[in-house]
């Protein structure tokens, strides 16, 4: 019994003598905190509700300047119809309108056939059409 007590007290004394105290300093890149903050941000949903509808794809090209010229030509003819330029590698695509029905899109497409003979109708998510109060 004495041997066990002596051995136990020796173990406790040895353990406390070996224990170390001190400060731990963490050195890290400051960009890590910025990255953690960015990843933790809450991203709100899209502000404008979208529905399935139709747009008319008028023009596409790899040169943005040509697409901008086509957009200007369209806006001059139809200032109240929204137009969108989307980059789908390697081309910029000009799409116009937020039409709920294919018939609405077909009407615009027929009127634009002279200036944009290769236009066609695309079914995709659209913004809710605006309600103009004239």
Number of strands: 4
Shape: rod-shaped
**Span of the ends, CA to CA:** 103 Å
| CATH topology (level 3) name of the domain at 50-127 | Alpha-Beta Plaits
Largest sheet: 4 strands, antiparallel
Task: Give the C-level CATH assignment of the domain at 50-127.
Answer: Alpha Beta
Average pLDDT confidence is: 84
Instruction: Tell me the β content.
Output: 25-35%
State the assembly state of the protein chains.
single chain
The second-level CATH architecture of the domain at 50-127 is: 2-Layer Sandwich
Fraction of residues in helix: 25-40%
Radius of gyration: 34 Å
Structural class: alpha+beta
CATH homologous superfamily of the domain at 50-127 - what is it?
Sporulation related repeat
Order of helices and strands: HHEHEEHE
Q: How many helices in DSSP terms?
A: 4
Give, in spatial order, the strands making up the sheet with the most strands: 2-3-1-4
Runs in which pLDDT lies below 50 for 5 or more consecutive residues are none
Structural features:
single chain; 134 residues; alpha+beta; Alpha-Beta Plaits; four-stranded antiparallel sheet; 4 helices
Written overview of the protein:
It contains four helices and four strands, in the order H-H-E-H-E-E-H-E. The termini are far apart. It has a domain at 50-127: Alpha-Beta Plaits (2-Layer Sandwich). The protein has a four-stranded antiparallel sheet, with helices on one face. It is of the alpha+beta class and 134 residues long. Strand 2 (83-88) and strand 3 form a beta hairpin. The mean pLDDT is 84.
Quick description:
By secondary structure, the chain is of the alpha+beta class. It is built from 4 helices and 4 strands. The N and C termini lie far apart (103 Å).
């Amino acid at each position: 019994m004495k041997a066990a007590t002596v051995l136990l007290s020796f173990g406790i004394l040895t353990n406390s003598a070996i224990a170390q105290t001190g400060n731990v300093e963490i050195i890290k890149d400051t960009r890590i905190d910025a990255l953690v903050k960015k990843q933790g941000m809450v991203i709100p949903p899209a502000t404008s509700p979208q529905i399935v509808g139709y747009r008319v794809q008028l023009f596409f090209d790899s040169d943005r300047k040509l697409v901008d010229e086509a957009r200007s030509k369209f806006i001059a003819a139809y200032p109240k119809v929204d137009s969108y330029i989307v980059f789908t590698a390697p081309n910029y695509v000009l799409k116009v309108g937020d039409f709920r029905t294919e018939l609405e899109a077909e009407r615009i497409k027929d009127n634009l056939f002279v200036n944009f003979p290769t236009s066609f109708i695309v079914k995709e998510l659209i913004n809710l059409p605006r309600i103009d109060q004239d």
